[in-house]
Amino acid sequence: QVQLVESGGGLVQAGGSLRLSCAVSGRSFSSMGWFRQAPGKAREFVAHIVWSGGRTYHADSVKGRFTISRDNTKNTVVLQMNSLKPEDTAVYYCAAIVGYYSSPYYYTRDDLYDYWGQGTQVTVSS
């Protein structure tokens, strides 16, 4: 049974940091992504990482502040979030892709991800 379990969300003041983790079990995947959804808004791509090689891709809105990484030995993907802003407030989801795509563009599309976690709330106060 495939499971993606997020942890690490919470309440933080603007300028602070949070570290989200996603524990993966049940099968292997080619790559992992983080998405977020704020109230009343569409789900938004945040970051992506390829398991083999560790190549990453970050949305412009978080570039320089957020960093995605993976720990192959623990089958865990981490999203380190620094310099948080109130507009980063959202439910953050971990997602997994089975197949491979030729361009980073495809990994920004949530419809191409095969499995999703339950989400973890991140709230940034001003």
Spell out the key features of this protein.
mainly beta; globular; 126 residues
Number of strands: 11
Portion in helices = under 10%
Mean pLDDT figure: 95
Unreliable sequence segments: none
The biggest sheet amounts to: 7 strands, mixed
Structural class based on helices, strands and sheet pairing? mainly beta
Please state roughly what percent of the residues sit in beta strands, choosing from under 5%, 5-15%, 15-25%, 25-35%, 35-45% or over 45%: over 45%
This entry's quaternary arrangement is single chain
Element string (H = helix, E = strand): EEEEEEEEEEE
- Shape category: globular
Q: Please tell me how large the radius of gyration is.
A: 14 Å
Distance between the termini: 40 Å
Provide a count of the helices.
0
Description of the structure:
This protein has no helices and eleven strands. With about 130 residues, it is mainly β.
